[in-house]
Amino acid sequence: MAKKDQSQENNLLKDIIAHAKEYGFVYPSSEIYDGLQAVYDYGPYGVELKNNLKKVWWESMTRLHENIVGIDAAIFMHPTTWKASGHVDSFNDPMVDNKDSKKRYRADVLIEEKAAQYENAGDIDRAKSLLSAMGRLMEAEDFAALRDLLINEEISCPVSGTTNWTEIRQFNLMFSTQVGSVADESSTIYLRPETAQGIFVNFLNVQKTARMKVPFGIAQIGKAFRNEIVARQFIFRMREFEQMEMQYFVRPGSELEWYKTWADTRIKWHEALGIPAEKLRRHDHEKLAHYANAALDIEYEFPFGYKEVEGIHSRTDFDLKSHQEYSKKKQQYFDPEINQNYIPYVIETSIGADRLFLMTLCNAYVDEEVDGKQRTYLKFHPALAPVKAAILPLTKKDGLPEKAREIVEALKYDFNLIYEDAASIGKRYTRQDLIGTPFCIAVDHQTLEDNTVTIRHRDTTEQERLPIAELHSRLSEACSFRNIFKQLV
Ligand code: GAP
Questions:
Q1: 355, 356, 359, 360: residue to mutate for ligand 1 pocket, most atoms within 8 A of CB
Q2: Exposure check for the chain: N or C terminus, fewer CB within 10 A?
């Protein structure tokens, strides 16, 4: 990305962050105390949007697939869970401090940024060789050589501008706390860094109680916590976030076919939610984690470049096998079709609800000039929009508010609405555009005569006259998840 483009993109992200705060989507956490880094709160419209995103994910998993069921596991888990999953020993980031600025960075992120600079300057080979050198050193855990790489590549601290780096150290990302009143090592428990393990340890409970047959899936939405070193880019990388994960248990040997199916299904899902295909790309992992035999990220072109939104991993039988070893409880399934016992293999789809939120917000944000006037609006898919319609009496008198209230009463059980009678109608339209309300319904004097209203469409600003009796079916048609689901079959 050229320098000018990069600053334009940074400005776009800044505008989106400011918009999110100003119009009630996302606030910095505990802001009156100057906030807490990488922790955010969702405001009135943010929580509605996030809930809609979680609901559409949940229903596409559990309702559209007869063989996928959900659970809601606790955040705290037995500490041995994290030994078995490998998180205690290897959920680490390589951390380096700049001695002059005292700022801390992830060494791999610094190197990746340098490689991106080479790539943007057209030096693809140099970018590739830098990344592969980094991959080799990280795998070998040769942190002294990784530090040399930082220095030889003249990668400097963005704050001090120097290459005066400390040794690189491994930093475990799990938050720990103490259970009970005595603080010793045996009472240490962790805040889960991924929701997936709650699914793995319940695999047999679910299989038996819901009488599931392989292949089947377990879906879950819940909070996860990571002590991220690099906390930047708004809600992209948070310390407390929400994951939506689905583990699909399959017969060993069939996993790569299912991996392909789920990768295609998930990309289609993002497109059905209104993300243009050209803003999405699939990044196949070259270096695989020790437990995976295939992995890819679905990336979206954020204002700060292509970044991961969702991961699809073929995790083999690593997790169940490891839990079997540590718990000494068999994690096997008897497959009646082939008359065999086995530990199923697992395909995982894992997406952050907050990252999905950020992608949806970035994709919806429109700031354009129309007839010499600036217009900003959020073009959310109507099924995802926080508020579906605003009911606006033209004036506060002549019985118009009462008529508008009647419409609210008729629609409020099925749609999230706003009633507003203050300020000019133009100002009220603008306010709804800024929070992405797809329809504004204006009640005027003609409404009292013939029971019709004007309905204004957010994206085109076009208006049409419609009988009140048709409003419910019009909104249902536009705002139903069915429009999204239809594209998935
Ligand atoms: N169980 C697999 C797993 O946790 P991951 O790639 O570490 O894999 C999956 O995380 C997804 O969770 C990511 O694609 C991203 O959407 C989200 N995610 C991970 N770390 C996050 C963070 N610090 N803040 C927000 N979302 C995060």
A1: 355
A2: C
